[in-house]
Amino acid sequence: MTYDLDCLKEIAVRIAKAMANLKALDKIWKSKAITLKTKLGILKTCVFSTMLYDCETWTVTKRCESRILSFERKCYRKILRIGWTQKATNEKLYRKIQLAETILQKVIQRKLCLFGHICRMDDSRKIKTLVFGMMNGLNKRGLWAAKAAKI
Fold first, then answer.
1. What is the domain partition of the chain in residue ranges?
2. Where are the alpha helices (DSSP H) in 4-101?
């Protein structure tokens, strides 16, 4: 995490690790003997699980969202053996895969599951205090702005 809660660097690292896993399974993706359903199962288990590790803590911005979705489409194109020069719309790609939910939807689902887990915790737990707690005192910027307004 950075001071401004930008998770782009963390997401880039997770994508790089998942891409390494994707590349390591090249023989499976190129195999014609393995069905698409099996390949999708392997993709979800070996590649997407690496990508989604610790995604509950990410602050997802529009830029992060586009990186995540483009990585997912790259994986599907690899499995379907669609080159980057070939014209194939995302809708056509999703229809071939019969996609139920995107990676981004899984990220949101995991974030909500973590929030529900924290809500059910005992009130004395530190993580619950951190999520729901109130900070005492004045915001320094607000205090500074109030003093500046008096001057």
1. 8-126
2. 8-24, 26-30, 36-42, 49-51, 62-80, 90-97
Identify whether the C-beta of residue 99 lies closer than 8 Å to the C-beta of residue 36: no
Q: How far apart are the first and last CA of the chain?
A: 38
Residue-wise pLDDT for 112-131, tens only, equals 999 999 999 998 888 888 88
Biggest distance spanned by C-alpha atoms of the chain: 78
Tokens of 59: 């602050």
- Rounded CA-CA distance 129/126 in Å is 5
Q: How many residues does the chain have?
A: 151
For the question of whether the overall pTM of this predicted structure is more than 0.90, the answer is no
DSSP state of 32: S
How many CA atoms lie within 13 Å of 61's alpha carbon, on the beta-carbon side?
9
Written as one string, the DSSP assignment of 106-151 is HHHHHHHHHHHHHHTS-TT-HHHHHHH----S--HHHHHHHHHHH-
